[in-house]
Amino acid sequence: MKSMGRRGFLAASTALGAGAGLSVYAAVSATDGNKTPDKTPDKTPDKTPDKTADIALRDRDLPFIGTEETFSTPTLLKLNSINQDHIAFLEEIGLSDLGQRRIGDMDAGGLNVQILSAHTPSVQNVPGQRGIDLAYRLNRQLVDGPIAKYPGRFKAFATLPLQSPEAAADELERSVREDGFLGALTNGHIAKKYLDHPDLEPVLARAVALDVPIYLHPGYPADEVFKIYYSTTRSKYKKEYQDYIFSGSGYGWHQEVLTQCIRMITYGVFDRFPKLKIIIGHMGEGLPFYYERIVNDMGEPTKDSLKKPIGQYFQDNFWVTTSAFPQTELLDLLLKYISVDRVMFATDYPFADIKQQTDWFRGVDLPRGDKEKIAFRNAEKLFRMKVPVK
Questions:
Q1: Measured between alpha carbons, how far is 312 from 298 in angstroms, rounded to an integer?
Q2: How deeply is 370 buried, as exposed, middle or buried, from its count of CB atoms within 10 A (0-12, 13-18, 19+)?
Q3: pLDDT digits (tens, 9 = 90+) for 193-214
Q4: Which residues are catalytic?
Q5: Which of 86, 144, 161, 179 could cross-link to 132 by cystine, CB 3.0-4.6 Å?
Q6: Are 224 and 288 in contact (CB under 8 A)?
Q7: pLDDT tens across 68-88, in order?
Q8: What does the alpha-carbon distance between residue 365 and residue 52 come to, in Å, rounded to a whole number?
């Protein structure tokens, strides 16, 4: 891909190549509380303009665990970036900073704990012993670095060499048992295979045996899919990497994760591994919008092949985080279909602003008990951890 200036990266997307940044809609929602950024004036005046502020004041002491918080290293930046300008952009937003800048941003937003994960696609494209060694080094860098230096502020999902499934299962177990990792995070397809593929069952089986979750983060599509769905023959539309962002944070990522979730259900993963725990981010990756259509239309063709109604798997095997989508109307829709006991807070730092999102959630009109579940209690329960006392 041709080089572009850093200004182009900043103008094109806050999330190129590694995370889903705030959309304009989300940014406005976060800034203006729960108002919808609609140009049409509301014909019904809000008679309680201070309600959000009052709720935020009430919940100003709310602790937070961030469950999707991204990091990189010089090695990963080189491995997963498209050019030097891209690396400069990612460094500028603080992706590889695991020290005072990150801690300062956490403190400014009142985020008590970050659960760290390596940025997309991590080491999933690195085969063989090189991938195995790289995954181990990345995991150990976190243990010996920020986790040791800032006790209680950082936890982590393991990076796994998924092109070597048996070795990936072993690294998952080692990182959980020896280093206290909370599970693993994957990034889309693994050499054109999803987690429903038989080759990857060793990883799923080990996660169940260890009783830890797997976080399904988006990844970029396979080349064939990119060419069919997202590419264009008109060069002027590639100048700002429109096709790249279109296939990623602008749209494609979210469809990709939801597709993987439905594949895992319909092709029997949770019947084979009924205790498997899966986390998805970005307010459900479109699941709330499509939930009734999926359950209704897929219910009939799967009733004889699955052990449970298709919708039940979403209730039994999935957790959802709010990462980078601080939009109250989406949270309300999510909670219509997914129990408040299965929703967790996340920011998608550094691709989204921590304080914008904690400020937004403090003002959300939910009972205090439900807000505590989302902000930190559900994560404490799932990961068997505690928010550190300040």
A1: 12
A2: middle
A3: 999 999 999 999 999 999 999 9
A4: 348
A5: 161
A6: no
A7: 999 999 999 999 888 898 899
A8: 7
